Structure formats: C-alpha cells, structure tokens
Amino acid sequence: MKVPAAAEGVQLVQPDDAAATIAAPPDDLVIHDVRTPAEFAEGHIEGAVMIDFYRDDFASELAKLDPEVPDVLYCRSGNRSGQTGSLMTALGFSAVDDVDGGIIVWQNAGLPLVTE
Question: Are the beta carbons of 98 and 10 closer than 8 angstroms?
Fold first, then answer.
C-alpha cells in the first residue's frame, strides 16, 4: 500500500509494492540507489543506477535528471532516500516511489539483490 510522504510527489511504498512496480514498470522507470559505491557493490536492486548521496555535486546531479520520468528511490534505511525525495520534489519531480525502510527492509522481505 502506498502511503503519501510529507513531500508532495513522493510516495512511501513497501518493498513488495516497489518490486511490483519494477516487475511491470511504467515507461522510462528509473531505479535510483543513493547509497555509497561500497554499499552498492555489496548488493543492489537489479537495474538500479547509483548516485552517491554524499557526493559534493549530488544536488546538481539530481537536477540533471528528467522530473517527468517515474522513479523508484532507495538507500540503506530510508534516511538518505527521504532527504533525496524532498529534494526531488523541490526540483519538480512528480512520480517518485521511496522504498520505506530502504534496502534493509527490501532484503528482510526476501526480495532479490544483484552484485554485478
């Protein structure tokens, strides 16, 4: 079940809901992982694109993205992705699903990760 987040345009979603969106994606869906390169290498959602939250140019990198493209967003526990979702909303993104609890809850739900 989707639960509206504090920021308009961002929906907190349970891992199973995010997995269903990823399995039958809308056109142009992008999966954004905002963890560090080391965290990403340990395991990530298949097809995810990493943008390190701690990069000095993180906000400017987000600003380069198309705000009309739907996104699934996650981090380790939900803190960084929550902050990122707020920033994305400020940048005009309107269709962002933020995985509630991050990759920790994703794994606890038994959902797959890849280490490519």
Answer: yes
**Average pLDDT by stretches of 10, the chain with 116 residues:** 52 97 95 98 97 97 94 97 95 95 97 92
Widest distance between CA atoms in the chain:
34
**What pTM was estimated for this model as a whole?**
0.90
CA distances from 55 to 37, 48, 58 (A): 11, 17, 5
Alpha carbon separation from 72 to 38, 53, 56 (Å, rounded): 20, 15, 22
The set of catalytic residues is 75
Rounded CA gap, 71 and 20, in Å? 13
